[in-house]
């Protein structure tokens, strides 16, 4: 298995090099040169596997022997041993044809743990093999930061810096990141939005000399391993539903802001999983809904919402989908991304829009609709949704035919977003791990959303271990 850039100037690199490069050196995103195809008989055999065994089978297509089988299995076992549920990502039936895939049983109570526990252990594995320091730089709209820090803290040879938008994440999300007292962890709260942080991250990674000098590695979903790890639970959910009822395909409703989680579903479908419609659930920051409905990808005015992890205007993984939409033509992708940089929008023609709409449906959920959905399912089904999952369920209700089975991805535990839950007049009990956070001191620095200022902070954090 080799990997290439969506923009065409990085060609046929291996899995480990893909992990370490993160953002492609030409500014594009790395994708497999050829998506592996899983035949029906293989899918049938895979349906009987545990989550960990399934992860091994799927990862093996992409790792392609670069990590010995026993070592890859050990990495997977170690990564998912930290989860509180034996199934890792259990499926809950809420009502006829409606299921929820619980992705919040990891250490930080968010779906990001599923990829970042593995990626953290993988970075540690590579560091131990090569003797090279790993310096991780990431931006978060809330959940990635805590999951990334938890995935790598205490691992020899690894240091991490996370940017988060100051005052624009939930209190629990902030505490999960900033109560970590570790000299290898730096939390920078930027005076701006997640999009500002993501832009700075991409600019720093695009500076290849700076990136190589300080051994910068990506933890955001620009790193293909994030996407790969997330494909597994689409397979797992399909298999669990199919054990209960006969289905030809399953639809998925996915709360998404950065297009990574739903792109993982798209990749699973391209691999051969019988996925029907992929429903993009957004909030008032609904650039993706606009593209899927009208073929116009254009950021609007940023809005703070009840679902802050989706408060994103520029979806970094969108470029990966463009690559496949344009028949894997890197020149056309580069032209469109240049157009986006110059004009602030991307427009596709009617024929391409038909293809988009055959892959996706979309619904942007307004604030009151989100809260009403939380209240409705708590009252009718005794199931408490976090606000992001509520957006997914609201989009399911709008976009899914009732005769078709749909799985909504539950991306976080509701305790992480009690500000929204309280607005529904619901009192929830916090897990003890979250309760304990409120008594701990915080460690963070508030900075301007300025690339040069952040580069200086990184130089101080990373320079001592750079030989």
Detailed description of the structure:
The protein is α/β, with parallel strands linked by helices and 467 residues long. It has a domain at 91-109 and 225-423: Rossmann fold (3-Layer(aba) Sandwich), CATH 3.40.50.1100. It is built from 20 helices and 15 strands. The protein has helices at 15-21, 40-46, 51-63, 69-80, 112-130, 143-152, 171-178, 194-206, 208-213, 224-244, 260-271, 287-294, 318-325, 330-343, 350-359, 367-381, 387-399, 418-423, 432-435, 451-462; strands spanning 3-5, 30-32, 91-95, 98-102, 134-139, 158-165, 185-191, 216-218, 250-255, 275-282, 296-297, 346-347, 360-364, 406-410, 445-448. Strands 3-4-14-9-10-13 form a six-stranded mixed β-sheet, sandwiched between helices. The chain has a five-stranded parallel β-sheet with strand order 8-5-6-7-15, sandwiched between helices. Helix 11 links the parallel strand 9 (250-255) and strand 10. The longest helix is centred in the middle third of the chain and has 21 residues, at 224-244. The protein starts with a strand and ends in a 5-residue tail after the last helix. The mean pLDDT is 95.
């Amino acid at each position: 298995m080799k990997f290439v850039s969506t923009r065409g100037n990085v060609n046929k690199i291996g899995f480990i090099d893909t992990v370490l490069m993160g953002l492609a050196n030409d500014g594009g995103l790395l994708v497999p040169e050829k998506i592996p195809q899983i035949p029906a008989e293989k899918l049938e055999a895979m349906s009987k596997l545990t989550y960990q065994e399934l992860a091994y089978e799927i990862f093996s297509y992409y790792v392609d022997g670069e990590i010995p089988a026993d070592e890859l299995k050990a990495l997977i076992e170690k990564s998912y041993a930290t989860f509180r549920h034996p199934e890792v990502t259990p499926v809950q039936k809420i009502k006829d044809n409606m299921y929820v895939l619980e992705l919040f049983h990891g250490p930080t109570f968010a779906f990001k743990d599923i990829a970042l526990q593995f990626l953290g252990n993988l970075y540690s594995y590579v560091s131990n093999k090569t003797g090279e320091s790993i310096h991780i730089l990431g931006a978060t709209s809330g959940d990635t930061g805590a999951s990334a820090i938890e995935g790598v803290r205490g691992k020899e040879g690894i240091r991490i810096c996370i940017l988060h938008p100051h005052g624009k994440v939930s209190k629990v999300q902030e505490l999960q990141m900033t109560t970590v007292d570790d000299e290898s962890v730096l939390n920078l709260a930027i005076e701006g939005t997640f999009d500002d942080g993501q832009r700075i991250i991409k600019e720093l990674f695009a500076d290849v000399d700076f990136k190589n000098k300080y051994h910068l590695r990506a933890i955001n979903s620009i790193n293909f391993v994030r996407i790969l790890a997330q494909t597994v639970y689409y397979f797992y959910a399909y298999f669990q539903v199919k054990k209960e009822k006969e289905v030809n395909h399953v639809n998925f409703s996915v709360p998404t802001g950065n297009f990574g989680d739903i792109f993982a579903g798209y990749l699973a479908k391209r691999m051969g999983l019988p996925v029907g419609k992929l429903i993009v659930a957004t909030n008032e920051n609904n650039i993706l809904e606009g593209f899927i409905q009208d073929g116009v990808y254009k950021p609007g005015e940023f809005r703070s919402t009840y679902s802050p992890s989706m408060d994103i205007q520029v979806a970094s993984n969108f470029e990966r989908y463009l690559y496949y939409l344009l028949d894997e033509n890197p020149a056309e992708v580069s032209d469109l991304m240049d157009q986006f940089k110059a004009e602030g929008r991307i427009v596709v023609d009617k024929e391409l829009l038909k293809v988009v709409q055959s892959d996706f449906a979309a619904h942007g959920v307004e604030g009151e609709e989100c809260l009403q959905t939380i209240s409705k399912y708590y009252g009718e089904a005794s199931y408490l949704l976090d606000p992001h999952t509520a957006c997914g369920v609201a989009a399911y209700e709008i976009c899914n035919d009732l005769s078709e089975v749909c799985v909504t991805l539950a991306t976080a535990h509701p305790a992480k977003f009690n500000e929204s839950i309280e607005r529904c007049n619901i009192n929830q009990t916090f897990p003890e791990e979250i309760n304990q956070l409120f008594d701990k001191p915080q460690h963070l620095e508030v900075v301007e959303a300025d690339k040069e200022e952040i580069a200086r902070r990184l130089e101080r954090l990373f320079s001592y271990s750079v030989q």
